[in-house]
Amino acid sequence: MAVQGRIRSGRTKEERRAALLAGYRALPGTHDELVDAAGAVRPHWEPFLQEWCALSPDELRQRFGLADRHVHDTGVSYRVHGDIDTHDPSAGERAWPLSHVPLLIPGAEWQSIAAGVAQRAQLLARLLDDVYGPGDFVAKGLLPAAVVTGSPDYLRPLHGTPGGGALQLYAADLGRGPDGRWWVLQDRAQAPSGAGYALENRLALTRAFPDMFRSMNIERLAAFFQGFRAGLVARSRRVEPRICLLTPGPLNESYFEQAYLARYLGFLLVEGDDLLMREGRVHVRTIAGLKRADVIWRRIDGDFADPLELNARSALGVAGLVQAVRGGQVHVANGLGSGVVEARALMGFLPALARQVLGEELILPNIATWWCGQPREREAVLARLDEMSVAPAFRSAGGELGRESVLAGELPAAGRAALRARIAARGLDYVGQEVVRLSTMPVFQNGRLEPHPMTLRVFAAATPDGWKVMPGGFCRISEEPDARAVSLRNGVRSSDVWVTADAPVEPITLLPAPDRISIQRVTGTLPSRAADNLFWLGRYLERGEATLRLVRALLGRLIDSDPSPGRGDTVRRLAELLVAWGAAPHDRGRNPAAQAYSALYSLDDYGSAAASVREARRTASVIRERLSVDAWRLFGDLQKQLTPQDGRRPSEGEAYEIADRALKTLAAFSGLSQENMVRGAGWRFLDIGRRLERGIATCRFARQFTENEPSGEALDALLDLTDSQITYRSRYLLGASLQPVLDLVMLDPYNPRSVAFQVERLEAEIRGLPTLAEDGMLETPYRLVLRLAADCRIAEAGRLDRTSILLFEQLLMGLSAAIADRYFLQNSGPEGSRLTGIA
């Protein structure tokens, strides 16, 4: 491959290396990861450069394309805080900014980093145990009381609660100073994010450079996640616990990561509304009743976890959760009060605490920090204010600073004076910190490597065997040449971290040993929220398909050069149905082609194909952990097909082709769900939603095209819309006639597009759903579907009219409401409030 690359590119490996490194120099006063002070490449980077330079420019582009396609196809995304569209959670998502060059760290150096992170996690865990327990550190003068109680993350109701601040997952943000030493910039103990993104970075770059990954003996990440999961299991009282990942929801900045980790680790992704307190325990609302939650890995701030005892304004938590934690009925990771150790005010006390508590010096020192709540430290900060970085001592402290630090010396004179006055008046809200210039690492840009400042987030997990550190991490790279604080917002990239080993690394899997696997044929408990969204996903997709069929039928008749009798009336009926459908605006002056165009592309008309696909993707984004990569790829294809590409209105023929291609994509999704989804409760709700929507649409089609003595052309349109032309022609030699057409599209149980077929499938699916009580009584959804099935079986085509068809439609809509009342979160009927089936 390398020889071919040389021939095609016309450059030798040495020439490529020279071009790649041309002009690469460390920034003044910084440590660079790739080259030393003299500009020589560091030894552990040499194997990487050798492999890289063996690839031609075309091959490199292909490798980068593989990584970028992985990011695109899997939907890896994030949000910037405040960039939210409440109507469409997927609208504010940004593609993950992957850098194609990993950060390389030799195994020997990593051992020191890992030891330092594990030591720090152990120290903070001990600190949390004391803060929410005996309080010896404050009593002995090791910590000022205000450093603890002054923090908004200190949750007083958790004091004296076992595990009130328990630390299960810890992350440290590290930077390397000019002398090459690693420093801790920030501790993350509230709800550390990034572990899932680290895993996705790894998957993307190993797809691009699999040979390089193997030859350089890169440490694997699976063992870390295996240990983390084992640590959570060990915290439960049951052998097979139900572990939930509590997310703030799809509008959160890192929702993709949360959904991804839930699927990867086999946890149940839940929101606050999915959980309920009963009999002192936390339960998950499922379609089979309430099921006990044993462990909750939270990704919401601790004070938002319980509106009853903590933050009454929270809509994200579970009322009574603190009571369940206090009673030892559920383990929350990290403990609800763990955020207290993230306070910058604590950093100045940690070196002395390490000596007192662990009997050790910190392996990884903090950046020097002075808490201004102490008179001497405050005066020192004010005396050197122009040389320091000033930051809030606690979350929500510091007034105009927000959560970020500022370089006091770069503020205008008035701003610097105001900051000085605020520190003098209320010093406990501020810390002064030494300004540390971060190290730089290479980024591939403009055909060569360029140095960019970076920070490294490293994760440690509490496992049954002690603290285990992820051999790698989450690297953030700034686009700016001066980055003394890097956060993930505009202009920041992310990359993988490769820890090299001296020998080949054994592959590790998250699967348990074969003799420890208990065979199961049921996927697991389905939360009511997930059932609700799967149901509506099916309905939105089917609704989009129905609109596309209407558009295709309308445009097909407009472009037909040999119109048949009744064509004008049929076009009118099709256009009227698009308007009644909500797919096109009610405007008598618009021609049918313009209405078809609106029904394809308009996002302002709720029934358009584009709007239905948008709603389907929004719904799918809430259950991202339950959908495959192929499904996300199809959503992307659909949205692209239903978005005008060049700003011009397509011709009638082009619009027809667009509708036809979109229908084929929807057919692919249908095939994917039929052939690839396990026939569990999730699939049932997806199928129920599709069957209901298809049945309702068919009833509307039948009412529109069989009234007022329809022409053969109108009946042909009905057969087109229900995809039944071939079946009809194979049965009847004559043209379309009213009664045979009605029988085929309404009552024929062998036609997969008929109403009777949908009802038959609905009966089978609803029969397979769980019941809340074994009392022999039929629940409302099953009772309604049995009535529908009986009506379909005894109905005769000759007696069907607009009124009887409308009755079928209304019964289907009533069935939809009954399913929602029984199985979804908004249920309020007597069946929804019964608490039988608690497990």
UniProtKB/TrEMBL annotation:
Residues 102-477 form the Circularly permuted ATP-grasp type domain. Residues 526-824 form the DUF403 domain. InterPro entries: ATP-dep_Glu-Cys_Ligase-2, CP_ATPgrasp_2, DUF403. Signal peptide: none annotated. Pfam families: Alpha-E, CP_ATPgrasp_2. PANTHER family: BLR2978 PROTEIN, BLR5612 PROTEIN. This is Circularly permuted type 2 ATP-grasp protein. It comes from Bosea minatitlanensis.
